[in-house]
Recover the amino acids of this structure.
């Protein structure tokens, strides 16, 4: 069986499952284009309220396939560079997707698998799930934005330790550091993510999308720039139909229907 990205739906949640049997869901270039296309379709589909990224067989993703990478040493450098560009396009698509994206991690997220989890808006992980930037162990450096995400989320010393040593970090430790949102029983990360997605689906889609944008843009904005962004989004939200429903439901002491 070949590596593939499987897409399925449960109500308003799109579930993307990394599948590469026998290779711990190692990544393959075929997955990249499929993921970008699927996320693009979901962006235009108002019935999709949230996206979950998970792995088959209770294992998130082992990252790159080392046998394939070794074979790529015989190819022009440009071919590997193109492959990484495609991976990065997938990472950017996760960041740009207006719907909230939840990583459901059981087993391990290694290398670019760790980067994929970090690219998601929220992370749910099994209590013994391992996260590892293993590149240095095989003489490589990170891709998929892993070094950027960790450097944004952690003090420089901690990010350096995790990336330079390449040792596994358990989900509870990353929860303490504020990277993993929720730690759950092993084997239940997907169920917990689905329940969370259901909660998000009950919220205003307009507000959720705008909040994701505000949080994503905040690191590169000055405070004055962010004031302007908040002002714009607040005014637009106030005049959106979701605010009419949300405010009316609150005043009428009922649940809103978006």
């Amino acid at each position: 069986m070949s590596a593939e990205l499987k897409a399925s739906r449960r109500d308003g949640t799109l579930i993307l499952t990394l599948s590469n049997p026998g290779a711990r869901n190692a990544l393959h270039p075929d997955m990249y284009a499929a993921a970008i296309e699927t996320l693009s379709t979901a962006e235009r589909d108002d019935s999709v309220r949230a996206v979950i990224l998970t792995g088959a067989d209770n294992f998130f993703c082992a990252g790159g396939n080392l046998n394939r990478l070794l074979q790529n040493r015989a190819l022009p450098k440009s071919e590997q560079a193109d492959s990484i560009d495609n991976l990065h396009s997938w990472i950017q698509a996760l960041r740009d997707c207006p719907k909230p994206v939840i990583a459901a991690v059981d087993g391990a997220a290694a290398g670019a698998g760790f980067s994929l989890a970090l690219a998601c808006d929220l992370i749910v992980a099994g209590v013994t799930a391992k996260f590892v930037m293993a590149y240095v162990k095989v003489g490589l450096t990170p891709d998929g934005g892993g070094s950027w995400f960790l450097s944004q989320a952690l003090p420089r010393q901690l990010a350096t330790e995790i990336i330079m040593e390449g040792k596994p970090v358990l989900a509870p430790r990353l929860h303490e550091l504020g990277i993993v949102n929720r730690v759950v029983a092993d084997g239940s990360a997907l169920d917990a993510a689905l329940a969370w997605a259901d909660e998000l689906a009950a919220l205003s889609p307009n507000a959720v999308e705008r909040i994701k944008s505000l949080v994503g843009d905040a690191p590169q904005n000055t405070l004055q720039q962010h004031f302007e962004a908040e002002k714009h989004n607040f005014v637009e939200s106030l005049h959106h139909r979701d605010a009419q429903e949300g405010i009316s439901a609150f005043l009428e002491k009922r649940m809103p229907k978006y």
Notes: The mean pLDDT is 96. The longest strand covers residues 4-10. The chain has two domains: 4-201, 205-251.
